[in-house]
Description:
The chain has nine helices and six strands, in the order H-H-H-H-E-E-H-H-H-E-E-E-H-E-H.
Amino acid sequence: MREILSDLVAEQQALDQFLQRISERQWILPTSAPGWSIKDVVSHLAHSERCAAEVLTEGGSALPEGNPDDIDKWTAVGVSEGREMRYQQVIEWWRNSRADVVDALSRMEGTDRVTWLYGDMSARAFGTVRLMETWAHGLDIKDAMEGLLTFDEEEEDPTADTSRIRHVAWLAHRMLPFAFAEAGESFPESGIRLELMGPRYARWVYGPEDAEDVIKGVAGEWCRIAVRRMDAEASSLKTEGENAETAISVVRTY
């Protein structure tokens, strides 16, 4: 758990620091999430973390009666709540809620089970989901601010991918059987192999060596497709096998 929690906190702090660059007026800018401003996105993150903290400490499900059909209503509640707050209140809401989640997860074993929106998962996977959502919505915010901020030449580009996206890549690969099933497709018995190049030329490989279906390419593209921030057709990913082609069209992390 130590590794995923360390990277989760780092991802959240990096987005928090990016938000400090944004003026009060810019918090109402529209993002690539339809109908959501930057403040709406952070409100969603805050609401999700608060619900996650309650699930971890009190049990139960994030949704009323655990009904997955209520997810859109559940999401709308968080955004609506944030619209009644000033942006400073929203960011404090997010900070306090995410801290409660990390505290609760730090007291768990990686194999402990957590019930979330679509069923139960390990505590390690749950921490990975929290990082994935932070990263994905961070993309929405950064896209909204593209061209509006300037950075010092000596500082690292705060919009660039980091090695933390390996967790998103792992999660997307792990969820391929679920993604195939949701799309009405049969997942191959031999599995699917993923060979990715991460930031600073890191090499990340997931899946069996003898898999007949292989996906190769840039990790950032694979991750963006998985969180629905890039169309598969727009990527440079290479595939070997029909099931690999299917994988990049159905992959999802939620």
